[in-house]
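Q: How do we represent a protein-ligand complex in a form that can be generated token by token?
A: Start from the inputs.
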Amino acid sequence: MSNVPAPLSTWVLNVSPSPTLAVDAKAKALKAAGEDVCGFAAGEPDFDTPAHIKEAATQALRDGKTKYAPTPGIPPLREAIAAKYSETYNQPTKAAQVVVSPGGKFSCYLTILAVCSSGDEVIVPAPYWVSYPEMVKLAGATPKVVVATDATGFKLTPEMLEAAITPRSKLIILNSPSNPSGAVYTVEELRALTAVAMKHNLYIMSDEIYEHLLYDGVQHVSPASFSDEARERTIIVSGFAKTFAMTGWRLGTLVAPAAIAKSVAELQSQMTSNATTFAQWGALAAYTEKDKTQAALEEMLVAFDRRRKLVHEGLNSIDGIDCLLSKGAFYLFPNVSSFGLKDLEFCERLLESEKVAAVHGSAFGTEGFLRISYATADETLNKGLERLARFCGTL
Ligand SMILES: *Cc1c(COP(=O)(O)O)cnc(C)c1O
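Then emit the structure tokens for the protein with pyridoxal-5'-phosphate bound:
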């Protein structure tokens, strides 16, 4: 008899732990053991949180803002978020439509719980963010994965969406700019997908957490901006983690029609109460001190854009690797299928022999690719590319 207890519930049995966090943890452990690891696996900016945001949170602590906050968030932050959507995203938004949560990840989960019942199907385009299918399962619903490879720029087409819809389809998850591919839908592409979703009465969860990390002059657009009908069926998820280098703060946002936002807040009231109070007061400074925020963001974008081009060029100069130049987030998603290895084996051997950590595409539902995060120092990127080239030369 083994002493290991049986899994406690069907939820535990059915959920897989995050493979991206696992690869990152493995790379960090190797580093801690003294190995010279080049980490391409991190899902977070390598910058620090802008000083004015940290200062505002510190001040909030000094001021004793250490008690529970209202469940959907502190009023001035909800107002500021509503104003942002109204002013810059062409979406008239009231504070009552905004919920502040403990992380964009939790905003996603709340959205899925608010919209889906058991038996419902959720359309999840792949390559997908690793948590979507697991969250759908935790809500008792069924993920319906539709794979879009580099042949369509990692983007779902309206035809692919039509073909995936069944009478049980309830929700489609869109994520532009995308983690892991960095792909960004054009206005026309997004409008066409939104039209199909509306025709079939689907809800849209639009994960816009990388909304500000865009290159080559591309503009952000949300399905909610296309029509009143689309706005009524779209839940926008975003947060502070990626734009303001605040991953550890655990602060997410959600913007939805008022009735949905109210339901989401009711779920949150039973699950976490509120997002950390003084963290919210810190995040508020991102809006009240706009010039400083903009300057910090621009500095990050210049570095990300330089690295994006550096890594894209480096990857394509390796025989056998083919990589699209993505326009958003801080990821590239090269095709490594020509080497004839499963992508998991490719990554395991790469980490073992060259100490380069990257996440296999199949973790994101798309076999034959790697996710390369370029949110790391140029020096590490250059060294990692050299090692990757040497590794590919041995295959
Ligand atoms: C990082 C990320 C999130 C949420 O991050 P939080 O740290 O929970 O705010 C949501 N969606 C995608 C696609 C992400 O990459």
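The longest strand covers residues 121-126. The two ends are 44 Å apart (CA to CA).
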